[in-house]
Amino acid sequence: MTMTNALNRILVLALVLAGGAAAEDMPEDAKKAIATFETKKRDIDAKAAAAAAKEREGLVKELNKAVERETKAHHSADALAIKDYLEQLQKTTVGAKKE
Amino acid sequence: MRIFLLILLILLAGAVCRASDLPDDVKTSISLSDDKQHEIAAKAAADVAKERAALIQNLTKIVEREDKAKHDAAAAEVKKYLQTLGVDASKPAPTAKVNPPWADFIKTVGASSQGTKPGVGVIQIAGKGMKTAKGLNVVAMADGGIVLEKSYCTQTDFLNFIGDIDQLPAGAYVVMVLKEGVDKEISSKARKCFKDCGGRRGALELEAECGYILIGAKGMGAGAGHEQVSKPKEMISFPPPSEAGKK
Q1: 3-class SS of residue B21
Q2: Among A28, A43, A61, A62, which would you mutate to test the B interface (most chain B Cβ atoms within 10 Å of its Cβ)?
Q3: In this complex, do A78 and B21 lie within 8 Å of one another by their Cβ atoms?
Q4: Is the ipTM of this complex over 0.90?
Q5: Roughly how many angstroms between the first and final C-alpha of chain A, as a whole number?
Q6: Do A27 and B58 touch (CB under 8 A)?
Q7: Rounded to an integer, what distance in angstroms lies between the CA atom of residue B219 and that of residue A70?
Q8: pTM greater than 0.80
Q9: How confident is the model over B230-247, as pLDDT tens digits?
Q10: Do the beta carbons of residue B176 and residue B137 sit within 8 Å?
């Protein structure tokens, strides 16, 4: 091992240790508080997303029933309008999922 | 050419009719579902804001502790994180007797309004929910504390409203949220109060079932505050649901 290689290795090691030390400077209780907040935020977001999806599912079911009802009653314009709305809803749901 | 235009017109008319052809019960279901979606988003935003406010409080205490213990590196790391939350920990924390800077205050405010019956009226400041009722709900903060937390609905209430707003010290922060609506025939003097607090339109000449939010300060100047007016039956929130989760 040449002298230059050895110096390079020492330099890299020093840099790695310095980086680690900076992250380690955060007090443990602060780390814990941040982690707890991130977890709670994720939980809140997930819960809200699930509730919104459930709400949307309920609406879709309700609208599908309305389509059946209007079709049976030969109200084709109404049935078509609801189907259009459902299609739009489906598109926005797929779009939102992709995002 | 004329025939082509006629066909196009018929097709366009068909599309418009279809959109407005939704049966009334379906329209109601859609509207109710929209309201619920807004409610879910507003609740999530308020919950996150509450957690965020608690975290800021916690980390600010940790910074103070580390500063006292001369653990500069540790304090700097926590301050760095606080900055990502929009808090500048290098500045002294506001004392209990001083209002926080406007930019900091507005970040701690959560509000929702809907003018339907039953309506929605939510005011949160620094994660704390304020009491609201039917009518115009007003919360004011001066010298770092809540100095006004009232609902105004009737003509008599609004006479008190004028007096209450007049008595606020210049610079007091004000949050107003309309729930369900207020009586008609409110004194025109009350309208001036909205402008005194940074509003432009005010909540007294809105269409029925509109929501209203104003976040401003006494003496801020008409239109300088944050004012939101919803369409009838629509629920509005501050911060808007799309921004509520952002750091």
Answers
A1: coil
A2: A62
A3: yes
A4: no
A5: 52
A6: no
A7: 57
A8: no
A9: 999 888 999 887 665 553
A10: yes
